[in-house]
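Journal club prep, notes for RB
We'll compare a predicted complex against what the paper describes. Inputs for the SN-glycerol-3-phosphate case:
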Amino acid sequence: MTRMIATAAALALAMIAPAQAATVYNTLSGEAPLVIAHRGASGHLPEHTLAAYELAIKMGAQVVEPDLQLTADGVLVAIHDATLTRTTNVADLFEPRNGGYLVSDFTLAEIKSLTALPTRTASTSYPDYTPSMADPFKVPTFQEVMDLVNAHNAATGAQIGIYPESKTPNRFSLNAKIVEEMKANGFDGSVPNTFIQTFSHEGAQQLAVMQDLLGMTNGIAALGYVLKTGDAYGVYDATTGTISSLDYLAGFATGVGVNLGYDLDAGFIAAAHALGLAVHGWTFRPTTLEAAEDQFLPWIAAGMDGFFTDYPDLAVAVLDGLNPAPVPLPAGLPLLAAGLGALVVVRRRARA
Ligand code: G3P
Ligand code: CA
């Protein structure tokens, strides 16, 4: 009898205790890598739409990424390409201007009349998700993206970060507008996991100076392709055709956002970490959990600090798999209490 009760108590303890030791991460912070929703949950819904950002947050992304371009009337909008062609129905509604459909040739009002289209594996709906906004598939302004994130953070106490990209070519005016709007909306360094990124390393340096002048402390990420010359790692800046050394980048950036190919390896991550630079890789596009494990696990082992992914749900699933949640206390506690209580009674009786 005593053995049975002791076994019940041990079983209850085992149910409450975590199933395995916590995973040790080789990231710069020692925390799990960041799940960065690349253009929102763009593997599921039309990229760079409020619905894609909202779904990404619901899926557990800690950061959402808007690429930013300027309209003809000077408004920041979230869209990847310099043109409206690939991701909207612009060609159905407008004649070409200057031979095409540059974002910079259309006003915000005109762009708002368009509908964002799904690309790649995306669709216009996702199971069990109803967008909270009236018009979920429009090209959003940067202001609307920040409003969505701020509203979510205020309502839930979460601290979702943003990772805007100043699209090249590098422009002082574009960079200044991004920094000023971020500051005006509270993204001044006080919201964790918030960064500004650009492929122009000169632009990244400019953004860092602008932030300093405004007393802002968001991360700055220089984007590019890892290239190794001899033993020295560098990041290729396609806007100038030059390779920036990690030493140079560490002078003004807090991290690098790098393509998953070329010379990227664990050695690069270690070299970047040695200089205090975080490494965020792009773009992870697994469509199954098995593919996600294949793609994410080696980079988790190598210490990558963040994943730009179109499928934040799969990145979250892989990370959750490394640290399964313990059995909730309410389920295990009554059994534990009963087992321990009975054990005490039996022992007292035995002594009497
Ligand atoms: O910003 C990181 C990654 O998004 C860079 O690629 O072309 O998707 O903006 P792209
Ligand atoms: Ca981007």
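Talking point for the session: The chain has one domain: 25-323.
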